[in-house]
């Protein structure tokens, strides 16, 4: 186990350096004049230009700039946006909203996905099974840029069940609709995976043994079938995080939630290089660390997996 | 998907195999895997629905005039949000453009971006997967690390950064930018699938036979391994095409994909979403077409995969 953890950590370091380098290079390699982008249409005086150039190390070679950036990233200093605000501050303002949204989305996805998947897996071929399967197919194919505005139209504008936008300080209730939208794709994949894995496990020998011992149907399903079926579902949570992040950018934009996604989008539209690179780097780190944790959890949950 | 298909075929009766319906020729005794798959596929209604949708979308992309005679760029703000009429069956949008005509003409950009991006993805995935799978060793380790790095960045995050960079240098509709972005970032799954099929094919007897006959690596890869590793690769590319069309629309929606001279479902959805209180149809029409297109390609890929999967065959 220790060897596996160490190898996995080393792998992550390589991936981390690679991804941050790619992101950094994409954003900064031979870019247009960022100082001019900052100033807009006004001319930039030579003095100001010189000060800013030195402050942001714009005259150093590319690799040295990347070094500065890595140093800042590792010491938790993300630098400042081009408008002078520390990026860490922008982030700490935005994170709570995004975390609330993501956790709520994940909660709905797990609740609905696993329940529906369990029922469908136990009653394969039933009407419930076929309907939910067809539904998940549609949901998986439904791009979030379609789902978010349509949900806003139907449940916010027409029916008026939920607020159409969440606003500056979103309440938990205001986040329910965005979370359902954001979690929709994950719900569908989770349901399909749970269903497939339940359907496989019901036929397993240990389930037959449990039944033969005279355990109640409820105990067999809850303890023997469901627990073993959840192992692959956990991996999915890690993989799905990337989709969740992408979805958050659109969802936060449509429902006007002041989270990481909408801040990132704003940074892109104002050509705020430092902010975009800072945000994307942190998001990539979150993605990598979560996937590492999920992989390790996987090995703990299923003793058959040791990755030697 | 597979179970839908199973349900669909069991409804036809389990005797379908020995008593084929009138018109269909009875299956010959020995069939290749492809013929087997085709036989399965022909009886799968999902395949036919998806294929019909794909043909429809491609037709819309090639000859939009067949569906709508109205000019999608002839806009007039005096008829902003005007209701349906004989000329415009779905009414007019915020700019006073014909909603139906714009939706029909939007297919071209989606299909073009999807096709070219998938071609690029296919080439990169083929080369990476083939080299990693065939030569193995340090080359495989290196290429797999590259795949890990690209896979380590969520697609949309990277696409945002990349398209922002590329778009700064380019003029025009932005189709080339989106194609490059999707091609560079989306090839990892295809490469992995190719690599694993090459790994299986490489150790087959016919490859050893070809090598003993003196065939070089290029000839073995091209003539012996590739044809046998192609089926899962094409399935992945079909599904990727669907996701690429969705991603293109998302990028355009976020204002970093295609630009206004081009007609894109993503742009129209973004504009209509802001004015959804005034009129819903400009939002609903492109949303529906985008969803159906994405679904069609995903379902098509799924159906082909199921047909080629021997585990699902009874």
From TrEMBL, chain B:
Query: Which keywords fit this entry according to its UniProt record?
Result: Cell membrane, Membrane, Transmembrane, Transmembrane helix, Transport
Transmembrane stretches, start-end? 45-70, 111-136, 142-162, 174-194, 229-254, 283-304
Pfam families under this entry?
BPD_transp_1, OppC_N
Read off the SUPFAM superfamilies from this record: MetI-like (SSF161098)
Q: Where is this region: Disordered?
A: 8-29
Q: Which Gene3D superfamilies match?
A: MetI-like
- Asked if the record carries the keyword Membrane, the reply is yes
Say yes or no: keyword RNA-binding present.
Answer: no
- UniProt-listed CDD domains: TM_PBP2 (cd06261)
- Pinpoint the ABC transmembrane type-1 domain residues: 107-301
Q: What is its main location?
A: membrane
Q: Which compartment or compartments is the protein found in?
A: Cell membrane
PROSITE patterns per UniProt: ABC_TM1
Topology of the protein relative to the lipid bilayer: Multi-pass membrane protein
Can you tell me which family this protein belongs to?
Belongs to the binding-protein-dependent transport system permease family.
Protein name (database record): ABC transporter permease
């Amino acid at each position: 186990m220790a060897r596996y953890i160490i190898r996995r950590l080393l792998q992550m370091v390589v991936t981390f350096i690679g991804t941050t380098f790619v992101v950094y290079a994409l954003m900064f390699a031979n870019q247009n004049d960022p100082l001019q982008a900052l100033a807009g249409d006004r001319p930039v005086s030579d003095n100001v230009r010189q000060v800013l150039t030195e402050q942001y190390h714009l005259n150093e070679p590319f690799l040295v700039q990347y070094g500065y950036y890595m140093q800042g990233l590792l010491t938790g200093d993300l630098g400042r946006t081009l408008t002078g605000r520390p990026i860490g501050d922008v982030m700490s303002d935005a994170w709570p909203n995004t975390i609330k949204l993501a956790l709520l989305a994940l909660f709905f996805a797990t609740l609905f996905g696993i329940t529906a998947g369990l029922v469908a897996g136990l009653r394969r071929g039933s009407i419930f099974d076929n309907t939910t399967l067809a539904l998940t197919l549609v949901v998986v194919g439904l791009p979030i840029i379609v789902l978010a505005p349509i949900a806003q139209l139907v449940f916010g504008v027409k029916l008026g069940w939920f607020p159409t936008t969440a606003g500056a300080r979103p309440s938990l209730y205001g986040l329910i609709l965005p979370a359902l939208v954001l979690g929709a794709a994950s719900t569908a994949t989770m349901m399909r995976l749970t269903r497939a894995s339940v359907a496989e496990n019901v036929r397993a020998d240990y389930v037959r043994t449990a039944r033969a011992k005279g355990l109640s149907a409820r105990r067999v399903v809850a303890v023997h079938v469901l627990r073993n079926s959840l192992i692959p579902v956990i991996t999915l949570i890690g993989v799905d995080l990337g989709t969740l992040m992408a979805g958050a950018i659109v969802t936060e934009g449509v429902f006007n939630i002041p989270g990481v996604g909408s801040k990132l989008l704003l940074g892109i539209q104002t050509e705020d290089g430092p902010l975009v690179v800072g945000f994307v780097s942190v998001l990539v780190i979150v993605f990598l660390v979560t996937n590492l944790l999920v992989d390790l959890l996987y090995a703990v949950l299923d003793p058959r997996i040791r990755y030697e | 998907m597979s179970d839908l298909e199973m349900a669909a075929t069991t409804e036809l009766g389990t005797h379908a195999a020995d008593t084929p319906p009138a018109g269909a020729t009875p299956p010959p005794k020995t069939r290749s895997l492809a013929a087997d798959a085709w036989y399965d596929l022909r009886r799968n209604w999902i395949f036919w629905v998806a294929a019909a949708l794909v043909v429809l979308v491609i037709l819309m992309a090639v000859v939009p005039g067949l569906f709508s005679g109205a000019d999608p760029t002839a806009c007039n703000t005096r008829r902003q949000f005007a209701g349906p009429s004989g000329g415009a069956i779905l009414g007019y949008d915020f700019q006073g453009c014909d909603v139906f005509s714009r939706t029909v003409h939007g297919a071209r950009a989606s299909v073009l971006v999807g096709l070219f991006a998938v071609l690029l993805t296919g080439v990169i995935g083929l080369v990476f997967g083939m080299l990693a799978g065939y030569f193995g060793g340090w080359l495989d380790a290196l290429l797999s690390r590259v795949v890990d790095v690209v896979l380590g960045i969520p697609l949309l995050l990277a696409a945002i950064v990349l398209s922002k960079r590329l778009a700064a240098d380019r003029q025009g509709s932005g189709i080339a930018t989106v194609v490059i972005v999707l091609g560079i970032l989306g090839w990892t799954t295809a490469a992995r699938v190719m690599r694993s099929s090459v790994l299986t094919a490489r150790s087959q007897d016919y490859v050893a036979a070809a090598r003993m006959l003196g065939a070089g690596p290029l000839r073995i890869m091209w003539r012996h391994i590739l044809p046998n590793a192609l089926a899962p690769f094409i399935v992945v590319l079909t599904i990727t095409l669907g996701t690429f069309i969705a991603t293109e629309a998302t990028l355009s929606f976020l204002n970093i994909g295609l630009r206004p001279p081009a007609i894109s479902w993503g742009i129209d959805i973004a504009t209509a979403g802001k004015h959804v209180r005034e009129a819903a149809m400009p939002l609903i029409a492109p949303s529906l077409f985008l969803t159906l297109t994405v679904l069609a390609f995903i379902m098509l890929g799924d159906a082909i995969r199921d047909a080629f999967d021997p585990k699902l065959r009874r």
